[in-house]
Amino acid sequence: MSAPLLDTDLAPAEVSARLEAVWSEPKTLWGWFATVDHKKIGRRYVVTALIFLLLGGLAALVMRAQLGTPDNHLVGPDVYNQLFTMHGSTMMFLFAVPVMETLGVYLVPLMIGTRTVAFPRLNAFSYWVYLFGGAMLWIAFFVNSGPDAGWFSYVPLAGPQYGIGKRSDIWAQMITYTELSGLAVAVNTIVTVFKMRCPGMSIDRIPLFVWAQLVTAFMIVFAMPAVMVSSTMLICDRLVGTHFFNWAEGGDVLLWQHLFWFFGHPEVYFIFLPATGIVSAIIVPFARRKMFGYSVLVLALFATGFLAFGLWVHHMFVTGLPRLGESFFTASSMAVAVPSGMQIFCWIATLWDGRLRFATPLLFVFGFIFNFVAGGLTGVMVASVPIDTQVHDTYFVVAHFHYVLVGGAVFPLLGGIYYWFPKFYGRMLDERMGKWNFWLAMVGFNLAFFPMHILGLMGMPRRIYTYPAEMGWGGMNLASTIGAFLFAASFALLAVNIVRALRRAPGAPANPWDAGSLEWAPASPPPPHNFTFTPVVASREPLWDTPELPVTTGLHADRRETVITSLVEAEPQMCESSPPPSIWPFVAALVISVTLLGSIFTPWALVWGLVPVGITLIGWFWPKGAKEEES
User: Fold this and answer.
1) Residue 121 has what pLDDT?
2) What would the mean pLDDT of 404-421 be, rounded to a whole number?
3) End-to-end CA distance of the chain
4) Distance between alpha carbon 256 and the CA centroid of its chain, in Å?
5) What is the CA 455 to chain-centroid distance, rounded?
6) Which of 164, 460, 477, 605 is a plausible cystine mate for 598, CB 3.0–4.6 Å?
7) Helices within 288-316 (DSSP H only)
8) What is the DSSP code string of 455-488?
9) Residue 78's Cα: distance from chain center in Å?
10) Sign of the CA dihedral with 65 first, then 67, 72, and 75 last
11) pLDDT above 70 for 495
12) pLDDT the model gives residue 1
């Protein structure tokens, strides 16, 4: 074994070549399963989430086809119950939260100037758990065992008295899968941002997208245990014979709603806050000026994250709670609009004083602002107890919910896809098709969901599979169905654009948008090691202020190493080794998945499953010798 070589001992080209050899992974089947490269895992997360979006979207189209005309019999009530449950569960647990959270898996290390995430193997493990949990849910649906009690799985409907069969058990275990994955990503994000920022990236220079990911990660750590506890209590009621939610035996059905919505309303902001980070990232290069009100935007993220935990009871205004308590949650629900409004004013100020380039990513930002403001206004309306009492469980709430989540999250995501696609794949998406994509999405979305406000005010309840013609809801439902198919066509156009770009588009330059943030410093797509030399930054837009970035040296060119920096000022403290590829995260996720799946049928699966789970964890954490680590 040769002596360690510091990167200062070699020419830059030689350093890059050696680092690429060290950080590259075998192009074999074993290498595919064993990868710990955050970029490969981030791409897998995003692609898998988009596949779940396709499945959830197809379920929505079947529902809209069913509701397009009165007295329709395209599907029966049982299939319809499974469809709306699968649609909601997929979009919330398998698409929206994972895709927003795991954009950071790919981008955060690049944005903060480091070579990998803090815990690469945990990162790989989180993906496999997410994949297996989502696959289990959809396989169950295709064999007619899909959950049918709604994405919120209210008891007693989902309890042992009414939830016959294994449908609710499968839903409860899917929660365990996805939240375990989400918590792993959140912990990874927190440690990566706090301890692996490049030298000079002090707290006041962190990109806004990274701030959004960090606040979201902290929210996940505090909120997700609530839904994991509630789903565990539900499956214990169903399989073990406990009575947490059985009022006849001293339980409480409202306990489920409190636990679920304590998670469920912050979950909306798990989706929305990363979307605001995407908007902030897009506006700066396309306005060609630095962000107005950086500190205000950061404080707004923290305020939204904090206030989000005081809103959950506004989902429960019709459950007979004390009026004084309801007034508190009304005030909280209205107060959370203040930091969101502050963010919008900062974005508009940046755009107002900028020199705008009306490319596709910026168009989706404009669409986001329009749709999210509309959804926010109806959110303030349903925060009022008298209004909420009238429109609760009607299509008015469905319209509000989709304007906030689709308008407020999917539109920024689509803009982010157009913006970061060259960074992911080294190809540019077609601008002309992108603009058609935007307008088709904008028209289709508003045609699909705006009529639902009127349907709700006309009294149409949620989650009904058909309705008589005499109710007068047919015209609005038909318009909504047409809009839904137009909105779906916009995604089909995006898919065509992506396939065309991957097959025909020329290679993209390293920084096609002339952006100022660090993810555009390496080539597009980045090399396995991200940065040949760790950059040193002195501003919030380092590529604008210092195009020739100064770098720090001292890492070995023949090892997987990263720089660890201080929490506040990002001063270099030490070099940390990064683990090589390993098959153990995949094996551990597989064994845990089999154990959790078996527990749906017998609690003894958890007992016997401890043995193989323990073996895989021993293999994962088995200490390596010094020579093996160096190699």
Assistant:
1) 95
2) 95
3) 8
4) 24
5) 30
6) 605
7) 294-307
8) HHHTTPBTT-S---GGGS-HHHHHHHHHHHHHHH
9) 30
10) positive
11) yes
12) 34
- Is there a contact between 409 and 272 (Cβ–Cβ < 8 Å)? yes
Average pLDDT over residues 446-459: 96
Is residue 387 within a helix (H) or strand (E), and if so which, with residue range? Answer: helix 385-391
In sign, the C-alpha dihedral spanning 529, 532, 533, 534 is: negative
507-537 residues labelled b (16+ CB within 10 A) or e (exposed) = ebeebebebbbbbbbbebbbbbbbbbbbbbb
Predicted local distance difference test score (pLDDT) of residue 5? 62
- Confidence band (pLDDT; 50, 70, 90) for 8? low
Asked if residue 504 has pLDDT above 90, the reply is no
- Enumerate residues 6+ apart whose C-beta is below 8 A from 574: 563, 564
| Of 350 and 547, more confident | 350
CA pair distance 105, 303, nearest whole angstrom = 24
Residues 6+ apart with CB under 8 A from 142: none
Domains of the chain with CATH codes: 41-503 (1.20.210.10)
Rg (CA), the chain: 25
pTM above 0.85, yes or no: yes
CB 576 within 8 A of CB 562: yes
Q: Tell which phi-psi region holds residue 144, choosing left (phi > 0), alpha (psi between -120 and 50) or beta.
A: left
> Residues with Cβ < 8 Å from 119, sequence gap 6 or more?
187, 188, 191
What is the pLDDT at residue 400? 95
Do residues 372 and 403 touch, judged by C-beta distance below 8 A? yes
- Helical H runs in 196-292? 208-239, 253-287
Q: Which two tokens stand for residue 120?
A: 């690469």
pLDDT tens per residue, range 119-150: 999 999 999 999 999 999 999 999 999 999 99
pLDDT in tens, 273-328: 999 999 999 999 999 999 999 999 999 999 999 999 998 998 999 998 888 888 89
Convert 491-528 into a string of H (helix), E (strand) and C (coil). HHHHHHHHHHHHHHCCECCCCCCCCCCHHHCCCCCCCC
- Judge contact between 120 and 38, C-beta under 8 A: yes
Q: What is the DSSP string of 332-344?
A: HHHHTHHHHHHHH
Residue 116 DSSP symbol: S
Residue 4: the pLDDT is 53
For residue 283, what pLDDT is reported?
A: 97
Write out the two tokens for 391. Answer: 């429109």
* Residue with the larger pLDDT of the pair 623 and 501: 501
List the structure tokens of 365: 């930002």
140 HSE (CA, 13 A, CB side): 27
Give the 3-state secondary structure of residue 316.
coil
Q: Which of 463-472, 503-512, 567-576 has the lowest mean pLDDT?
A: 503-512
CA atoms within 13 A on the CB side of 21: 10
SS3 state of residue 41: helix
Mean model confidence pLDDT for the chain: 92
Peptide bond into 603 cis (omega under 30): no
